[in-house]
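Input for the complex:
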Amino acid sequence: MSEVKIGKAPEGSEGPGYFLTSLDKIVGMARENSLWPLPFATSCCGIEFMATMASHYDLARFGSERLSFSPRQADVLMVMGTIAKKMGPVLKHVYEQMAEPRWVMAVGACASSGGIFDTYSVLQGIDKVIPVDVYVPGCPPRPEQIIDGILRIQHLATEPLKRRSSEEYRRQLAEHGII
Amino acid sequence: MEEVTDKIPEEQIESRLQDPLVEKLQSQFGEDIYNAYETYGIKTVVVNHERIFDVMKFLKETPEFNFHFLTDECGIHYPDNKGQELGVVYHLHNMIQNIRLRVETFFPSDNPVINSMTPLWPAANWMERETYDFYGIIFEGHPDLKRILNMDDMDYFPMLKQYPLEDGTREDKNDKMFGR
Amino acid sequence: MSIEVNKNNNELVVPEGDYYTLNLGPTHPATHGVFQNVLQMDGERIQSGESTIGYIHRAFEKIAEHRPYYQITPLTDRMNYCSSPINNMGWHMTVEKLLGIETPKRVDYLRIIIMELARMADHIVCNSVIGVDTGALSGFLYVFQEREKIYDIWEEVCGARLTTNIGRIGGFERDFSTTTFKKLKEFIAGFPKVWSEFERLLNRNRIFMDRTINCGPISAERALAYGFTGPNLRAAGVDYDVRVATPYCSYGDFEFEIPVGTRGDTYDRYMVRNEEIWQSFKLIKDALENLPEGDFKADVPEFYLPPKEEVYNNMEALIYHFKIVMGEIDVPKGEVYHSVEGGNGELGFYLVSDGGRAPYRLHFRRPCFIYYQAYTEMAKGILLSDAIITLSSMNVIAGELDA
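Predicted:
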């Protein structure tokens, strides 16, 4: 018998030929299993991401098969690697182009907090320029940790469903100066 | 003969190394070769910064030297040597006879101007931009001397010894806690 | 704005100044790393370009002036992160040269095994990504499995997959375990079949050859003038390899060939790397077969931390441990330049020591930084898609570019 568990269906009532549940559960399920990441890979964590996308750790099983390099078509902005101060405006520009709903994952110690580079030229964490949802620490994080980060984004994708109008989100955007 | 001399050059030491390469160089340039020694397997000469371009051209174009490959060019800062604070260190390589040479030259920090090596080796282009970016050394004759690694609007030269490593504007790290 | 037709060859003649500016910006899927090229295009053809780098400048050289010698090793990891053990070993050898430490033969042979595995890993990434950029995506997925096996071997030795911080000044942190040797033997047994399959996919593939032959060529004179080293220079025809010119770490005990190309175009660079993978493989097999017995470290208690049991029981070891960690050891003054053959060329370390705990000046001679300046010249006059594969065949790694 295989160890693969089939995911639980959302709550609802069932009958021959129909399944009754609320719309937001279906939308949440669809969203979480088809997140299109934008790999913003700058340095070493980018190579671990390549290893995650390759066949051994296969991120595609979780729905992230199609990498989108255009921010207009992406759901998750995965920032992997050190962001220097020169790169900060570029990152913000890319984030502003993403359409709602959008999530940000900071992969690696450098993206989370500047990492081992406490210098004049490195941004000490990307949450200085854009709001971040999930931080994956590590230098570089193992592919299993990156997958764990994606699973947490999936959890965030289901609830809350309409995040763009919430207080906290609007406050974060205002703090970073993003319209 | 291996001698490890004190790397902080105080004044022009009159110590000549018995070596045909260095002797030929000295016979050509005389007093402009301030010092010559061999350390950890690489011969080093210290040259007058006003004649550095002629020396390098001679090293590249004379057939018996033939240092056709510029391995590396970088800057260095000795704030304690008054009048000779900034320096540029070149590493040359003759691949055919497998000889390496290090050429150093020093000049004062209030007039950090030196000739560019881009007419001789195009490889020097970005190396000199990096040295300018880090130390503020102006290379005369460089086609496009501007910052390469740091942001264009940076107003100081970060590798000079008087500037700290960390960013002065960060407010989230408490230096008292981390023993800096 | 008048565009005329050239009567002789029926091509459109675009007056100068009407070129289209294309920003191959810092975030681009095809540039594997963050660097920017602003290209002036005449349709699909590139007329000129300007490169901007520095988007991942992390000030390694400034950091190195504030860290003791053994803490700079993790910093060197992050330069060429596809083959980080080579950077680590190069740094250790530079410090050993400064301190005058001779490592035993066993250490040298083990270092060769690790460095050649790193070279193979780097070339695996480069060649499979040339495949991806020309459209051949499947090869990448198959050969990355081999890279996972190399990661497994490194993980057995030092605990980390990518940024390894492998080895210590004077040798290794511990001798290789039996599991490591078992994994090495399995890797050696399984690798030729996988790589030959990849070779059959691309090496004599008509489409691949048509795309890459005569794409972004550079002559040997221009390459030497631009400071090229490594596979890019060897593809242009110059057989310069630091392992042969100035043998370090007992490379002189081994026989291997230096593959050399003729035209310096993308196909030559691809084939040179391909052949270098086989030469590295041969070196690993030879080193493993002839591995001498001995100590896994040099006998330098002043620079190599003593084992923990001795620190707790032996007064001398405790004093050495204290002195090493607090930086009370006398380091000779002097300036050293040591270079190793990295995945991309001659990786040099220029170290100036003033006797203190941290270097006075440390400069990395980074091969990527030096040869990338030739890119705009190589890309002149070719189509955009050819420029992309020229860039990926040069194997520009952003961490090494900016440092």
